[in-house]
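Quick one - first record:
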Amino acid sequence: MEGRQVASRGPAGLIPCLASFATGWRDLTPHGDAGRSPGASGRALIRLPEHDVPPHSYRHADRTAFPSHPVVTQMLLTRRTPTHRMALITGASSGIGEGFAEELPDATGLLLVARNAARLQALERRLTRPGRPIVPVPADLTTDAGRSAVIEQAEAHGVDLLINNAGRGQLGRVIDHAPEEERATIELNVTTTLVLTRALLPGMLERARAAGRRAGLIIVSSEAAFAPLPYFATHAASKAFNLVLAESLAEELRGEPVDVMALCPGATRTDFGRRAGFAAGNWPGAADPRAVAREALGALGRRNVLVSGRLRRAALSPVTVQRAIAARGLGCLIGWIASRQPADDEPKPVARRAHRGTMPQ
């Protein structure tokens, strides 16, 4: 695959990777104007390194959203993805999941997953267009049976965009919640996200390579992922897992035909807060779920982590930039170490030790 492979499988792979990682810092100007296009008022034309992204991927970026520093931009921005053919959306019956279903173009078929069959059917009727496949899949994603049913449907319909949106949480102290409620949160927020991602990514990549297209993966995390959150501990911990998983996958799959992004919304007008025991949707400034989904779809292929809302994104940008730097640097180092390990089917060398007073055999 042309374009974005960073660490080679050979022993010299670490040096080019680290060199490309460091190039942007060397070119940083005192006024932070590296990469600005002449005549671009208030906007920066970011040119990604030619060895890493093809020339057609030059982008105008909002300077309040994307730092104009080249290496930071390279880590936060990737390619804009084309329209996908079939999207799987979990938690599609309401909130941000429903927003994704409404915002995806008519050319994208939909596999809609949620427990509420009636809502899925209503959504199907509302979004049906001639020639557009829409498949409602009622399933309980906290169970192995539910996850297996969704995976089977996804493979049968050739999904090339996976949106892991379903989530739950409960306000209060962990010790005050029923153990089965806490476990259900982990099953849905963590286990389901990992199981669906691991099961579907290989097929998505294979189809993308064969068709010369790009697949997409959106993992819905939360602003709660960035700090400890007492009285919402299990939910926040699960969203931290989602964030780290997406950031790590984005680096592991660098060079593969897939765009990976973690979406981190803040307070949003959904049913989540009501089910969790508080009215987050009534907070001042709570976002419209459809607007959150629209922003996420526009950012897929451009950045690996999206904090929804310009003000919140600006407030968290020091954290997201540091995490992007860490992901890229560690990706170079650990990727190189991993490439040096023998494959599972390769014989491992046997250490031979000569004992004192004996000759080695």
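second record:
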Amino acid sequence: MGIEMAYLGTRSCLKLPTVHELAYQTGNLLELTDKFPLFVEHSVDQLCIVGHDGYFRLLNPQWTECLGWTVEELSGVPFFGFVHPDDLDCTSAELGKLTVGVPNILFENRYRHRDGSYRWLQWKARHTDEGSLICATARDITRIRLLETEIITIADRERERFGRDLHDGLCQSLAGIAALSVALSRSLTGRLDSAAAAAAEIAGLLRNTIGEARDIAHGLSPVGLDEGGLASVLEALALTIRRRFHIECTLVESGAPIPRLPSDAESHLFRIAQEAVSNAITHGHSECIEILLACHEGKGSLSIRDNGVGIAEDLIKRDGAGLYSMEHRARIIGGSLLVRRLERGTEVTCIFPLTATHNQSGSRNHASNSR
């Protein structure tokens, strides 16, 4: 069927539809177009079209199911009117990418439910071909975020329990053995054989082992967080790294002092620093690490900078468990995480609020890129 047209000087043929075929295809297209509203209405995700004035132009019924607002209520308020205050800058930055030619964007933020809580939404958006409208899909990932937060909380709790057991159990037992070794060494002093020297060496080895075990225990369960705050445990982390790995590791503070944060927020920031430092040593083969803690324009900043080989560009997409864990911890406390490769080394930066707006339940907090 159809009409074949040969290009001059070639054997290629262009097959054109007949009038009857064209009518059939057009009818099919019209029939599919008529059914498009059914497709939109029964989608499991939230679908929308947003105008450049910031108002919704089209919404499917799933928005009401997800957020409790009617379509009319959602359409009467600008898009940003429902975004969590801590997510406004990140959301604006993501949507701004569309205006500079990025074809598609994928990001996450929190959107206000009718009951006052917030839902985590994962967005995928693009401009229409003429560029006058934004077409987007949103998926409710609140349960996923809740589960991730619960997993991290349980893992932290078990890690701290193991650290306390290590410190109070094994370290104390080793300390008792070390005391006996010292006593044995002293009792053997003056003997001409090698027994005294061997006993003294055993005592020294035990002292070193106790130090290493205590460093590990403090890493698992940071001592001083409740009393001294974030800066004190970061200083202790730097000291531990210098002692265990014999590399330069320092804490640098700038700007106004960081005020005390909720204990779980300080714990998450410590774990971010700990993970970044561990990556710098294990993967970056760094010889110098700086932990920078700063307060600027009402926000806190924690940066870990090293002089190692630098993170591979493909890993910056956060496919690794460690990077994803750091990003999720930043989200929990209402912050954001940026990982970038330097001319030499890597820099991991967490920007976090200095107010108690952290999100433990998944219903109160943050926006960040999702790559």
